[in-house]
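Open question from group meeting: does this chain pack into something compact, or does most of it stay loose? Before anyone orders reagents, we agreed to write out a predicted structure and look at it together. Recording both the input and the output here so the notebook holds the full record.
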Amino acid sequence: MENSAPKSITIWLTGLSGSGKTTLANALGEKLKEKNINYFCIDGDVLRDGLCNDLGFTDADRKENMRRASCLAKMMNDQGQIAIVSLISPFKAERETARDLIGQSNFIEIFIDCSWEECAQRDRKGLYKKVEDGTLLQFTGKDSKYEAPENPAVHIKSSQIDVTSSLAMIISEIDRRFPLILA
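Structure tokens returned:
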């Protein structure tokens, strides 16, 4: 019997700035590397520094940023790579567009749920301070909306669970849906 499991998938981590998306994406990447599995991380900050450095933070620019990330993830999947996308991705419709482009069955949406207050306490980049000072506008979760996923494959409350346990939840979902990928 021929194996019908996909060679590659996209793991899409969404949540507010500072929620822990990049930390989990890096931890997942390390786990995949240990298993000699090809992957590619698409991080929102890195994307904004390169491929999307021509975009601002209007709703239209955020949608284009997500479109580019989706296309890049699809290209990586087409080349046999697992794509790990770590992107605020604030709009439900654009996440659905990404899912449709990549393929419903090859897309795992992970919501890194963390309150505004907790993200502001973590504030490694100083962004929340700038928002409070009024020097940073159009910030997701404040004056630019964030539409939380209604039915993510994995819902991680990052202020209540550590990275190791969060990673175990992600690995469990991958194993449940794609048992041959991590075997």
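Observations to bring back to the group:
The chain is about 45% helix and 15% strand.
Helices lie at 21-34, 44-49, 59-78, 92-102, 116-122, 127-133, 163-177.
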